[in-house]
Amino acid sequence: MRTETPVTVYRKDYQPYPYDIPEVALAFDLAPDATEVRCTMHVQRRPGAGADAALILDGEELELVSVGVNGKALPAGGYELSAHSLVLHGLPDDATVEIVSRCKPSANSTLMGLYVSGGNFFTQCEAEGFRRITWFADRPDVMSRYRVTLRAEPQYPVLLSNGNLIATRQLPDGRNEVEWEDPFPKPCYLFALVAGNLTHRETTVKTASGRDVLLQVYSDPGSETKTEWALDSLVRALRWDESRFGLELDLDRFMIVAVHDFNMGAMENKGLNIFNAAYVLADADTATDANYEGIESVIGHEYFHNWTGNRVTCRDWFQLSLKEGLTVFRDQEFSADMMAHGMDAAAAASARAVKRIDDVVALRAAQFPEDAGPMAHPIRPESYQEIGNFYTATVYEKGAEVIRMQHTLLGEDGFRAGMDEYFRRHDGQAVTCDDFVAAMESVYVRQHPGRDLSVFRRWYRQAGTPRVTVTLEHDAAARRCTVTLTQACPPVGVEKKAGPDYVKAPYHIPFAIGLLDRNGRALPLRHEGAVVDTALLELTTQSQQWTFDDIAEAPVPSLLRDFSAPVIVDYDWSDEELALLSAHDGNPFARWEAGQELATRQILALADARQAGRTLQADTAFIEAWRALLTDPKLDAAFRARALALPSEKTLAERMRLVDPPALAVARDFLRAELGRQLEAEFRQAFDDNQTPGAYSPAPVPAGRRALKNLALSHLMAAGEQEAQRLAEQQYATAGNMTDSMAALSSLINYGQGEFPQEALTAFYARWSDNPLVVDKWFALQAAARSTTVQTARELMTHPAFTLRNPNRARALIFQFCLNNARGMHHPDGSGYAFWAEQVLALDALNPEIAARLARALDNWSRFVPTLRIPMQAALQQVRQHEGLSRNVHEIVSKALEFAA
Ligand code: TRP
Ligand code: ZN
């Protein structure tokens, strides 16, 4: 098979579809080896379309059985059939088109379209999977009402599709037949069906307007004890969308189904969400605190799509961030509100800061590198070859930041008014990002006469992370402080191809700042007619100045509070100023940030020393700043766990001129151990003070205590104390929940001595071998372990439980190794890169979406030290030259080689 010549799709080329398809009837005769699909659609030529406009339908890997128009079968020459399309010419203005086709779910390893997992049938249609089920106008601006008939053998007793169940019967041949009807017009990417042997948990709730709705969570028989948290999370999501956005569930029935083979987290199909089982199943013995949090957040995310994505959908796939950025923002706010729920004001502020910190850590680890590399794209891309490659951190997480900035600029009430206006204008439509901003702008212009969001809109069309340089001048005589903000954002990725004349325009950046005196007290700021602790500066040109009066001495600035914009701040704090902010900043996010900057400086200095062959030594002032955070009684445990966490290798790499992951790993490890030695008594105290005896609860307070206690354990273990190993062994042996088991096991296999760690690993597998989600954890722990080499990874791949066909398993082993094992992956002999190339190609033959995600592990190769850069480039070229590459992988490796920094 030859690699297809890539076709680039451009946003500027959008054309409406010439036909409406108001109704679709789908009838499925389900069988693993040959499923027959009868698709009957009512097509109407659109008013503006020419009489000669063809009906062009997309199809992929389908066998055509018949085509009929208005009840008459077309002869073989009556249509044009190619590998990817079916074209009908000369249709009347209004016609019924009936297409019968066959597909083979059992052979579908891509997990797009209709496939079999664990003996049951599932579908995944976003973005372009519906064309693997039947020939259709597979694009989001064609919206239809669906009626679905499912027929299957009795071994598949549960038969589900979108909307309401309208009939169930037994056929004379013994099969079951059901009919579903979805009253809401939808694009085909929101179609779904599930058929199989499943159990479920359900509840009925009354919506705000008093309607009873049935909520159900389906999963494999035997797992019904693990769906309580998921169903409870769904109820919380439903309530939250009512109270915070006034949005109610519009169906009588809402279903979630868990499946073990799934490419991503979950999918928001109308009324029938399909989830990766990892985001549904949980109990104390098998799920960690992070799993519980992830489930609540993803359940929220998919549920919130019902309005932001389904009721108002995307005109085309360039608008993906319209639904994803907005829905991520909504799920982040949902989680923050849940975490702060029932707390007093100070505790609630800290809990919200913890959520904000976790989101920003994720953004910096994944999106900042993306925005600085060959795949850099605006949140609304201008072009793509494979849309599956654009479900990115930029579209999702930076997209959410762009929504958050609008929330910051308009305020909570203004943002809510903007959302109300968005639904008033666009309910039932397929629209653009610009339509969303226009709705928000209608509120902004009322709030801020004479201003608009025209500069703000550049966030949608320019890529890259802007850098904001801050200078501060203090005039003692005038008691005045002048703050200057200057922004820059040079071309990145594809933008560089536009040529040297391409100039990027300034962004509209909401920049929150505070000023502290030299004792760490907040200085009151007079800003826009009010006296505030935090001033929101709106930078809309390349450089602007603000002055603050009544400032007696040169203050210490607290910058970009709450991460008010997705930018990089340049300001030359002294270490003493950072220590002061870390100890006193009244904004908990900025307080965390100051400590992280201190740690970053420390680790980068250690990595330098390592590269120069000098002995490593930790700075006393840094250790003292950490001691102060660790022992501050006013800080809750969850916050302290974040404040004391060392910055991730991914974030640190962004700060190196030439990236050297092994040097960073050594530096980070050294510091972890050194902190363990120098703060041994304090860490031991934190370990003892933050035990959570009694029944397990995933609530933020006990989860925060576990996070701090387990962080303390990892430092004590890294320091190599015998006593620490005793604590870890004891915790492993007596843990009453998976968070504590995993933390102890991780410390033991990374830093432990003797037989115990290996024996524990073996016993852990034996205990959990029948639980795939726990086996994933077992693989992941080993894949990322400090001592794991390519050789170890290859041996793990021969384990009977390993398979490349299951994405969760591939992620647990291959992705963990390639993305999270600096020493093994970036060995100077290049063996890690050869392994990567091999696995990308092996996965590509099964599942191009997953292969393309792994392919991205080498995106930023050109910024590495030469000893690594050269073998990385060779591995990329090797993949690039492979015959029969998917469009997905082809786009990634080509761009990596072509748009390298
Ligand atoms: N729309 C889904 C979400 O964000 C994610 C999604 C897109 C997806 N494409 C997919 C999930 C393919 C699985 C497979 O919630
Ligand atoms: Zn989504």
TrEMBL record:
Keywords: Aminopeptidase, Hydrolase, Metal-binding, Metalloprotease, Protease, Zinc. Belongs to the peptidase M1 family. Residues 464-572 form the Peptidase M1 alanyl aminopeptidase Ig-like fold domain. It catalyses: Release of an N-terminal amino acid, Xaa-|-Yaa- from a peptide, amide or arylamide. Xaa is preferably Ala, but may be most amino acids including Pro (slow action). When a terminal hydrophobic residue is followed by a prolyl residue, the two may be released as an intact Xaa-Pro dipeptide. The gene is pepN. Residues 107-190 form the Aminopeptidase N-like N-terminal domain. Pfam families: DUF3458, DUF3458_C, Peptidase_M1, Peptidase_M1_N. One of its GO terms (biological process) is proteolysis. One of its GO terms (molecular function) is zinc ion binding. It comes from Achromobacter arsenitoxydans SY8. Residues 229-443 form the Peptidase M1 membrane alanine aminopeptidase domain. Gene3D superfamilies: 2.60.40.1840, 3.30.2010.30, Neutral Protease Domain 2 (1.10.390.10), Peptidase M1, alanyl aminopeptidase, C-terminal domain (1.25.50.10), tricorn interacting facor f3 domain (2.60.40.1730). This is Aminopeptidase N. The keyword Metal-binding applies. Residues 575-898 form the Peptidase M1 alanyl aminopeptidase C-terminal domain. Its cofactor is Zn(2+). Its EC number is 3.4.11.2.
